[in-house]
Fold:
Amino acid sequence: MEDPRRLVPRTDVVLADPRLAPGIERLGLTRVKVALGPALTRCRAGDIAPEDVVDEVLGKLPESPGGLRPVINATGVVVHTNLGRAPLSLAAREALALAAGSTDVELDLATGQRGPRGRSALAALARAVPDAEDVLIVNNGAAALSLVAHALAWGREIVVARGELVEIGNGFRIPDLLESSGAVLREVGTTNRVHLADYADAISDATALVLKVHPSNFTVAGFTASAGAAQLATLPVPVVVDIGSGLLQPHRRLPREPDARTSLRAGAALVTASGDKLLGGPQSGLVLGRAEMVARMRRHPVARAFRVDKLTLAALEATLEGPPSPVALALSTTRGELLDRARAISDALGDAIDSEAVPTTAMVGGGGAPGVELESAAVTLPERLARMLRTARPAVLGRVDRGRLLLDLIAVDPSYDASIIDAVRNSSRE
Structure:
């Protein structure tokens, strides 16, 4: 007679187990069946008993419906491109959850007729930068520049300094982006020096605009010269300033970083920027400036390809109107505050773990404020813990410096300190 422990339960019987109901509701029936298949195979082989099949399935279910894993950013890079750039505020996350369902993103509920798309997000951006006559939101910073070229410079020349023909992430280059959008580039100056006269000499009837690109991911030092927005605004063609990092007004900790308000007041016709860097919002591209030029961009056929979705609109509005973003909080935190937290974490770890609180130097990252050093503090640990913490749940990502693992706290919300302590303790036991 066959051993009853070797009897394999039917699939429908296992799926009816109430312990699997939360997983089916959260992950979907298909994902649960994927985990069930190997469990039943092991049951047939006699590796597990029939009554243990459900526990086996529960142990194999993923933590979330998607493949992305949460990471505590202890690298000392405030806006980390590989971690999705700016983390969103709680207000923005709540806005995302609300926008995930049916919303009035393009509907006037009072009349029941179609309404302006993203009107409240656009209004929030306009309030944040009152110097702009009109504003537009697209799906990233590169899209904003591409739309400028499509709508305002198709078949015409864009005058730009040679030293500002930058390469951005993953090998993409600004000149390739602009030329692929139908514009002709007219380069002026040299790699390290450009003067107002260089721009003036290049302007002709074929010129559509002058573009000034902020080199947001590198610095040029030494024998250098450049023309600012105020100088360029004296030229007889519109000036578009790509500030890159999305700083909307001056920041005391980043005095050399260009911002939208200052650029517009200096005479820029348009300012383009990213929304997911220093602004601290979701991935998006911002266009701010003259109403006539923004209107031409809004009505251009290619604008549809760069249209932003309701989730981005909701998160961006909450970032603009809500409490300070995590990026803003990081930039306002003092080294003294961070050292106090680092000492508390080190004390909580105890003598069994080799740790110490130390002052460190952090950076903005993410294509903003290159070369600017931010005073910060970290907890140092043995280097061997780096890999184990990266694979912890949640993952804790630090940086290795001179044989020690540093968990820099400038970009870590204080609410995560307890999670860091638990993760270090668990990793040190492995």
